[in-house]
Each structure stands twice: as structure tokens, then as C-alpha cells.
Amino acid sequence: QVRLVESGGGLVQAGDSLRLSCAASGRTFTRNVMAWFRQAPGKERAYVAGIKLSGGSTNYADSVKGRFTISGDNAENMVYLQMDNLKPEDTATYYCAAALNPPNFTWIKAYTDWGQGTQVTVSS
After folding, report:
1. Cβ–Cβ under 8 Å, residues 99 and 31
2. pLDDT one digit per residue (tens) for the chain, 124 residues
3. Which residue in 33, 36, 80, 119 has the fewest CB atoms around it within 10 Å?
4. CB–CB of 46/97 below 8 Å?
5. Are the C-beta atoms of residues 100 and 29 closer than 8 Å to each other?
6. Which of 92, 82, 88 is nearest to 18 (CA)?
7. Are 124 and 16 within 8 A, CB to CB?
8. CA pair distance 28, 39, nearest whole angstrom
9. In a 3-state reduction of DSSP, which class is residue 39?
10. Is residue 82 within 8 Å of 73, Cβ to Cβ?
């Protein structure tokens, strides 16, 4: 099992930036993909960005492409989500997740480990 703890959320204004962090512990060697998902009130949890820990390839949802950047530090078991030019529609609880060889980054059912979430609120 892998334990994930997110941090870095907060209340910001449109156009501001935030950096989310995800600290992983436990059997991290059993997971090779990390991702960020988000869930707004009344909506389903949605994929945001993912990274392969071996090789560093990344993938983004169209809605955040060009504004968000996912990165990882394998030595520290950390994954980050740099969010720039935030918009009110980015308001959600953001979750870090881990998977072993998902068929694709976006398949939520492949992610077996989840953090508790961190709230991001963007005011207009």
C-alpha cells in the first residue's frame, strides 16, 4: 500500500498560481504512475495530469494544458502540480493518486492509492 498526502491548496484570485505537493510513503516502488485528479461540488472526479515516474513522461487534460505542470522527485517520493493562470473553474478538491501500469493516464479505476485531497478555490 502507498500512503499519499497532499498539501498546498488555498484561496487565490483568478490569474494567480499555486503549487500542490504530494508526499508518497510506503510501498512506493510498486507504483510507476502518479496523477492528479480534481472534484468540484456536484461533479465527478476528473483527471488533471499524470506522470510516469520512470522516464518522466507527462500527460494533461485539455482543460489545463499550457497552464499546469506536473513534475516528480523520485528521490524524495514527491509529486508536484504547478498551477498557473488559475481560473474560477479550477476550483475543486485536488487529489493525488498512484497506479501500477494503467492502460492510460486517465483511467481512474486503475489508481489504487489516493490522498485525502486539498482544496483549491479560485475567486473571480
Report:
1. yes
2. 899 999 999 999 999 999 999 999 988 878 899 999 999 999 999 999 999 998 889 999 999 999 999 999 999 999 999 999 999 999 999 999 999 989 999 999 999 999 999 999 999 9
3. 119
4. no
5. no
6. 82
7. no
8. 24
9. strand
10. no
